[in-house]
From TrEMBL, chains A, B:
Keywords: Carbohydrate metabolism, Xylose metabolism. This is ROK family transcriptional regulator. InterPro entries: ATPase_NBD, ROK, ROK_cs, WH-like_DNA-bd_sf, WH_DNA-bd_sf. Belongs to the ROK (NagC/XylR) family. The lineage of its organism: Bacteria, Bacillati, Bacillota, Bacilli, Bacillales. It comes from Brevibacillus fortis. One of its GO terms (biological process) is D-xylose metabolic process. Transcriptional repressor of xylose-utilizing enzymes. SUPFAM superfamilies: Actin-like ATPase domain, Winged helix' DNA-binding domain. Gene3D superfamilies: 3.30.420.40, Winged helix-like DNA-binding domain superfamily/Winged helix DNA-binding domain (1.10.10.10).
Amino acid sequence: MKKIMKQDQDVTKQHNKQMILDIIKKQRPISRAEIAKITRMSATSIGRFVSELCEEGLIRETELTSSGVGRKAIMLDIEPGAIYTIGVDMAKKRISFGIMDFSEAIIAQHRMDHKTQDSTPEETAELICNEMEGMLKQTGIPLEKVVGIGIGMPGVINYERGIVQLSTTLEWKDVAFASLIEKRLQIKTVIDNDLKVKILSEYLYGSAKGSNKTALIGIGTGIGSALIINGEVFRGGSNSAGELGHTTLDPNGNLCECGKRGCLQTYIDENSLIMEARRVKDVSDVRQVFAAARNEERWAKEIVSRTALYLGITINNIVCMYNPDTVIVSGDLVENYREIIDLVEEHSDQVIWEPFKGKFRVIPSELKGEAIVMGAGALAMQHFAPLAGTWAEES
Amino acid sequence: MKKIMKQDQDVTKQHNKQMILDIIKKQRPISRAEIAKITRMSATSIGRFVSELCEEGLIRETELTSSGVGRKAIMLDIEPGAIYTIGVDMAKKRISFGIMDFSEAIIAQHRMDHKTQDSTPEETAELICNEMEGMLKQTGIPLEKVVGIGIGMPGVINYERGIVQLSTTLEWKDVAFASLIEKRLQIKTVIDNDLKVKILSEYLYGSAKGSNKTALIGIGTGIGSALIINGEVFRGGSNSAGELGHTTLDPNGNLCECGKRGCLQTYIDENSLIMEARRVKDVSDVRQVFAAARNEERWAKEIVSRTALYLGITINNIVCMYNPDTVIVSGDLVENYREIIDLVEEHSDQVIWEPFKGKFRVIPSELKGEAIVMGAGALAMQHFAPLAGTWAEES
């Protein structure tokens, strides 16, 4: 059943104030008159909301020469230093950090090597908190200006409760990670699956800008997917939608680390490439396979071609299930070896279902390594920035 | 970007009026006092909206002995005869009709044999219109009380524009079917993919009531799926999400009617069972295969078992992609041969990804043959009933 919520003056007021802040954020700098044109609200109402937002320190007035007539106009802009969030990208072997200001720019970055598997979750949380404190000290940002922390990590994440349900990459099960950070720093923290954070990022800042129906495939040590529709990340019943890697292709196929047979990831992720290569040559990483393929060695070319074929199948299957207008392919494997994407094109006639041909575009990730840090910062902004949630309550 | 829409008094008023109508519809009969308790609106406001709804003929007052105190109370109820919609289910060999009243009860039904493939779309539209006129005449419902028609049909349907983009079952391509009906009867018409209509129906009236994250698998002459989240049918970019049947399992697998190899439906739909059986015995339909299996013939048991295995894989793949809390299995194949669902249970350890085990339930369709007629009537109600769209505009 849809929302049962009375709409009264307070709700309406909050809605309109949030809308004005949103317009300033997206079209800054902008004049009061332009806001009036967009919203069709009265000058008096706009004036009142703008004053409130100025008093709260979220926006400021700037003087700009407007392009048309040459005379000076008072414009409104976000106050970038009003608040901050910190975005964190936890990967298998490294953790990346970024401080995001209210204008959603990353103003400081930091990266460190860390094998999460070798530490307890408590140790990792302590380490992350120390690093963040160090970054804030260096940049001179007081702790109380940080309204929230967002963390993207691989695995099945209970994002509402802040629990890592299962992460085979981090080797964690049922870890209440968000509260470890919150307790230590007294800053609200949201954690989420890395690919869900990544697609949010591509939607806000990268390849998927302007597309409201975008799917993302991430290929590296595993394979997964995510989807964003009308600005909302598609989560399914318990935030686990998009677990593409464990869809079954062949009930008698390759054995997967999950214990099932024939999971898609056993045909396409980095491990599967290495396993396949070792039938012929003793390779230690995927780089050697691609080097051999570039060197025209037939066994390696066959492996690369087969990977492209299965990437094509993956794209077909995700398009059949989600019907997006854009598919972003991302992850170490495709970002380091672009030739795979070119090869997918060659297979597309064979693997894409006819009615979908020409109905979507396949593009590489634009943000690459930055995507998760930026998306995690944005996620924290959506959750914890002032006035945030006004919209969420309504929908 | 999210909605930019000023909220003013008119919007607020429409919202609250629709909310009250909605509450009466779902909890009828209900008193003004109970509505006040739910909405926390003032008695004056509720009184005003109720008067308007009574004047418009959408609701009526009834006198009921309230259970608690024994004295009579004035209750509010929907006026079932205020308006009607007609729901139509177009299948390969038959067309079913149902007239739905404002209380969303089907008050008249009708079914006819018709092979759509043997007629032009114009002929089929004419036939459907004649049948509907006949039903209205019989029931004494004037044409002008019918606010809309909803039609569910197999295929890729452009539901916003009323166009059948591709239906291999009906053998139609790019047919503007909704406008054929609209022109002939002057009644607004919405068409949609049959499984999307079916899941709406199961959500409103059947197995999925109370579940906000339900997927549906339909298996018969083909295989497809649908998903409903928070009361909204998941449509994807162009209403083609859920095309499960053409996800690829094996690039070297069975040839599919679509021209690709190894599509899921070539392993599990009725055709594939018959093709497989014919390697051993000259069967003409799927009934013979199940009869032989029930008769303990080994070849037939193997086919049924394999079908159950692939149904298990289908369920795993849909759960991985959509992460629903409920999966409804529907369609002639599973509705006529329930033993398949029991067999799926046996395979589930082998085919369901560990983190999802125990996190969802698999249930058969409750409405069966009625589902699409009811869902199509409801779809028309959602689109064309008075005050409908008030919510839609906001979200």
